[in-house]
Amino acid sequence: MASLPRIGLLLTGGTIDSVGTDRLDLAWYIEAGKRLGAGELLKQLPELAKIAAVEEIPFRRLPSQALVNADWLDLVRKIHAIFDRDRADGLVITHGTNTLEETAYFLNLTLKTVKPVVIVGAMRPASAVSADGYLNVINAVRVAAAPQSRGRGCLVVMNDTVFNARDVTKNATYRVQAFASRDLGPLGYADADGKVIYYHQPMKRHTTQSEFDVRGLQSLPRVDIVLSYANADGIMIEAAAKAGAKAIVSAATGAGRPTPAQDEAFDRVYREQGTIMCLCSRVGSGRVVRSPGLKRRGFVAGDNLPPWKARILLSLALSKTNNADDIQQMFDTY
Questions:
Q1: Longest dimension (CA), the chain
Q2: What pLDDT shows up at residue 123?
Q3: Which CATH architecture has domain 6-209?
Q4: What is the pLDDT of residues 308-319, one digit of tens each?
Q5: Distance between the two ends of the chain, CA-based, in angstroms?
Q6: What is the pLDDT of residue 78?
Q7: Residue 130 has what pLDDT?
Q8: What's the pLDDT at 149?
């Protein structure tokens, strides 16, 4: 009998291992301040023994909105150390859903491995009636153990669905079907018969194809996001530049339109400080394109990335160059 795939399980915190005050505590469980102890999640899932040899590997556990760049850099180094020592054939990372898509995209751009790395979360705590995290973990292990998952970049598994890290985003506050890839759809499914089925392949460059290698970095350039809305002025743009932002992402209206006052502030900080500007949209779907006028002004267009993912790519790009045309090429590539 062939040996089972070896899957490492890293717990980084979030709803998936949170414990509420009772089985109907579906909203305020974070305030209880309780989590499953070391090894408890695996103890609840004896079914995993038929799928893979799963080893829980310690990592810090935090609410996902508390993660900072240093945590991401440490996580990249941790993952590489696991694979460099041939400790696992694939990894599953449990994660809070609030910033799950951001961690997934960062790993998608920076990991140097074809081995499956799957991020999974839950919309209901471990103590809840109909807690979704347990089945999500089983499905994530199935995906990480599946040979066809190799080379597809960092993956996200939620609600029986396999997503590309670049395209997935959270669309609801509490519903179990919260995650979707609005423009492009999922890559496949971890289906009810136990099979992992893929229908699409990521086309944007990632992982081993990526030029970004952060293993030697201790920090990343600061990039801030400024929201556009009726009557918005340039104060937040000027404040971000003064605070040391090397670039600013505009979460602009429509197809990428800041207010006139914001446009003036963008041009001023670019002219005076060389602060790179990236235009994205707040609407949630569709591309932002780089017109000839935007190119002349040194703007970068964010394609169909949401502002919070454009911030990640822009920060990584700035670790290599501050040339707007070169950065635009990266946005067109990743």
A1: 68
A2: 98
A3: 3-Layer(aba) Sandwich (3.40)
A4: 999 999 999 999
A5: 41
A6: 97
A7: 96
A8: 98
Q: What is the pLDDT of residue 239?
A: 98
Class of domain 223-333 as given by CATH? alpha beta
Render 234-291 in DSSP notation, one character per residue.
Answer: SHHHHHHHHTT-SEEEEEEBTTTB--HHHHHHHHHHHHHH--EEEEEESSSSS-B---
Query: How do 179-180 and 169-170 pair as beta strands?
Result: antiparallel
**Cα angle vertex 105, ends 104, 109, to 5°?**
120
Whether 19 and 125 have beta carbons less than 8 Å apart is answered as: yes
Question: Measuring CA to CA, how many Å separate 22 from each of 17, 126, 224?
Answer: 14, 11, 39
d(CA 309, CA 167): 9
Give the global pTM: 0.96
List % helix, strand, coil for the chain (3-state, nearest 5): 35, 20, 45
Given a cut of 70, the residues of the chain with pLDDT beneath it are: 1
What is the pLDDT, as a whole number, of residue 16? 97
**Sequence spans of domains, the chain:** 6-209, 223-333
SS3 309: helix
Residue 334's pLDDT is what? 98
Any idea which residue has 């939620």 for tokens? 158
* Alpha-carbon distances, residue 193 vs 51, 133, 162 (angstroms): 13, 18, 15
Count of residues making up the chain: 334
Which residue, chain included where needed, has tokens 């150390």?
81
Residue 273: its pLDDT value, please?
94
Residue positions annotated with a catalytic role: 15
And the tokens for 247? Answer: 């670039």
Residues whose CB is less than 8 angstroms from the CB of residue 256 and which lie 6 or more positions away in sequence, other chains included:
250, 279, 280, 281, 288, 289, 301, 302
4, 111 in Cβ contact below 8 A? no
CA–CA distance, 43 with 203 (Å, rounded to integer)? 38
